Amino acid sequence: MGLVGPKEKHVDSWVFESLARLWLRSRKAGACDEIIALIGKMQDIHHDVPAFFRPTENLYVLALDSVSSYDRHAGQKVLNLFNEMQSLSAKGVLPSPSLRVLSTVVGSLAKTSGRGHVRHAYEIYQLILKKYDLGELSEPLNPRTLSALFRSILRSADKESANFALEVLNETCAAARNHPKLVAPNIIVFNTILVGLARKASPDEAWETLELMITLAKEGFATAPDVVSFACTARALASVVTPNTLHRTNSLVRSIMKLYETGELLPDMHLFNILLSSYKIASNLEEGAARNALRLLERLEELSEKDKSLAPELISYRTVSEALLKSKMPGSLAMVEKVYLRAKSLATAGHISPLDRELCYTAISAYARSS
User: Fold this and answer.
1) What are phi and psi for residue 330, nearest 5 degrees?
2) Can you tell me the distance from the alpha carbon of 248 to that of 279, in angstroms, rounded to the nearest whole number?
3) Long-range contacts of 264-271 (CB under 8 A, 24+ apart)
């Protein structure tokens, strides 16, 4: 780029923004450094031609976008850019950081690795909520910003990340109740959280998140649980056995069946297989878990007569058999044989996949124990 003299007032800041956009679109690895260099040039020239070459918010946003898109370990660069913006804002060169800027910083930090960057993203998110309380922001927060923040929190290896995510969620819901038109976590945000909690095997936090979804939905927010919500919660319940596993699984099944009967939910066998797995893990502590697994299987067989999408699969019969084998419930071993023979009949008729080794082994084990 050539030199710009003090009298060349036909060149304005938009020229620098145009160059920055070209670098951003180039998708080159060093694009972010080139845009940051442009900002540096503008700051230098601003001393000589202050009326025309003042750094702009758009240029900083382009730099932030570039850093987060092409450098996943550039959290410090993001913070440096944001700190520069705040400094220039204090001097009156730039306006106070807008929601667009703050959201971009949160999203950029959320894409980078490191516990410290997650905390910085949360601190800036808190600044957004504070500005809403003070009436300094009037635009609604994009739910994608929330999803990025929660995804970053739950991607962290921190052992307390599940608890931290729940703390931030409760804070968010409180803000939503105070500013329903500005902060409104939707079902995508909640499902993002539930996916992360299921991966972290956090059944208590997942259950609390689902209950919060239902509560907000009753208050008029777009958070009514869908198949993904229930499946992620069930997967979390199936990950670790707790004294509440059976009770919560029963509650999930009742809710899903009720919504299915009213036509508000279209569950599939993927969801029900996860619920059967939850019953199986609960059978380690509760005798009734295996019985409920068998009842659910039989209920699905009944429903499948009219709705083929709910026809139990090979994995369904295997899971129930394994739950019964684990159970100390009287007569459970005989029930394993019943389930095995039913699966064998369906496999012979071609309705399910051929029996696998695991199901056969479970049936043999049950027979050996009962002999």
Assistant:
1) -55, 130
2) 10
3) 264/224, 265/226, 265/227, 265/230, 266/227, 266/309, 267/227, 267/230, 267/310, 268/227, 268/309, 268/310, 269/300, 269/309, 269/310, 269/311, 269/312, 269/313, 269/316, 270/231, 271/227, 271/230, 271/231, 271/234
**Rg (Cα) of the chain, in Å, rounded?**
28
CA distance 341 to 168: 50
Please give the C-alpha separations between residue 33 and each of 58, 68, 72, 255, 302, in angstroms, as whole numbers: 16, 12, 14, 53, 63
- Residue 136 carries which DSSP code? -
CA distance 114 to 97: 24
Residue position matching structure tokens 């991607």: 155
Per-residue pLDDT tens digits for 235-259: 999 998 888 999 999 999 999 999 9
Q: What 8-state DSSP symbol labels residue 262?
A: T
**Neighbouring residues of 71: CB distance < 8 A, sequence distance ≥ 6:** 29, 32, 77
* Stronger pLDDT, 301 or 112, i.e. the higher one: 301
Q: What are 152-166's pLDDT values in tens digits?
A: 999 888 889 999 999
- Decide: residue 18, CB within 10 A, 0-12 exposed, 13-18 middle, 19+ buried: exposed
CB 256 within 8 A of CB 267: yes
Tokens of 335: 């029930």
Query: Given pLDDT bands bounded at 50, 70 and 90, which one contains residue 181?
Result: very high
**Helix%, strand%, coil% for the chain, nearest 5:** 70, 0, 30
Contact 111, 68 (CB under 8 A): yes
State the distance between the two ends of the chain, measured CA to CA, in whole angstroms: 88
Q: Check: CB of residue 243 under 8 Å from CB of residue 253.
A: no
Query: What number is the average pLDDT over the span 65-72?
Result: 67
**DSSP string for 45-103:** HHTT-TTT----HHHHHHHHHHHHHH-TT-HHHHHHHHHHHHHHHHTTSSPSPPHHHHH
Do the beta carbons of residue 162 and residue 205 sit within 8 Å? yes
Residue 121 CB partners (closer than 8 Å, separation 6+): 105, 106, 109, 110, 149, 152
pLDDT, position 51? 60
* pLDDT band with cut points at 50, 70 and 90 for residue 176: very high
